[in-house]
Write a structure and sequence with these properties.
The chain is globular, with a radius of gyration of 17 Å. It has 13 helices and no strands. The protein has one domain. With 254 residues, it is an all-alpha fold. Helix 4 runs antiparallel to helix 11 and helix 9 runs antiparallel to helix 10.
């Protein structure tokens, strides 16, 4: 039952700007007998990967059928994922965080950081740019922002969405590009599970993976509604509170 809860939390927090990894770190500390390490957490990304494909199936299919748009968006995505891929492959950030005795403190600071980013992003006037208006340099900027999500507590969707809004993308376009950028990133995190795992993945992880897929579909809809209606400040407050909870959990366990 706890595994299914972890899957639901992964699906919801992957797309809502409240950090899936941050939640799972805190929950792992609260439920030590059912804790997930970063490799197991990464496996659940497979469910959220298919959430994006299914939810935006028509939009993605449309892109695939337009050669010019496909080439441009493909270039933007490749440039956008390079920073996270480079840091993920060549810097053992996940291992260092997993082994750190201060992982909850790191998570708390990351949560407070993303809370601030969301708070100011919510106050921006909506831009008028589409994804195809993005330059490669701007995509790279979003990519570097995405790399910060290697730290638990920094929401991947939150940091990329906020950066896209700062770069004056329309809200719906910013969400779509954030999720498109997430496809190779999320799949890559899942693939690294098998490349770096030192022992076989437990087959029971497929159950929370399916839960992550279903809850992810709901979360994408919620993200769109809250972003379009300028309610990102709700997530900002939530992230700040999660930062306090993470710090409190660390102090209790001292």
């Amino acid at each position: 039952m706890i595994d299914i809860l972890f899957g639901i939390i992964q699906g919801v927090t992957e797309f809502l700007p409240i950090s899936s990894s941050g939640h799972l770190v805190v929950l792992s500390e609260l439920f030590k007998d059912n804790s997930f390490n970063t490799y197991e957490i990464a496996f659940l990304h497979l469910g959220t990967f298919f959430s994006i494909l299914i939810y935006y199936f028509k939009d993605i299919f449309s892109i695939l059928n337009n050669r010019n748009s496909l080439i441009q968006i493909f270039k933007l995505i490749v440039i956008g994922v390079m920073p996270a891929a480079a840091f993920g492959l060549f810097l053992p950030i996940s291992n260092l965080i997993d082994e750190s005795s201060a992982i909850l403190v790191i998570t708390a600071l990351a949560y407070i950081f993303i809370a601030s980013v969301l708070y100011f992003a919510d106050k921006l006037e909506e831009g008028d740019k589409s994804i195809l208006d993005l330059s490669l340099k701007e995509s790279l900027t979003i990519g570097f922002a995405q790399a910060l999500a290697l730290f638990p507590g920094v929401s991947r969707s939150g940091i990329t969405l906020s950066t896209a809004l700062y770069l004056k993308l329309k809200k719906t376009e910013a969400i779509f590009f954030s999720l498109l950028l997430g496809l190779p990133t999320i799949f890559g995190a899942w693939l690294l599970t098998f490349m770096q795992a030192t022992e076989p993945i437990d087959n029971s992880l497929w159950i929370p993976c399916i839960a992550a897929f279903l809850s992810g579909l709901v979360a994408i809809r919620v993200l769109i509604n809250f972003t379009v209606s300028s309610k990102l400040n709700v997530f900002s407050i939530y992230c700040f509170l999660m930062g306090l909870i993470s710090l409190g959990t660390y102090l209790i366990n001292l």
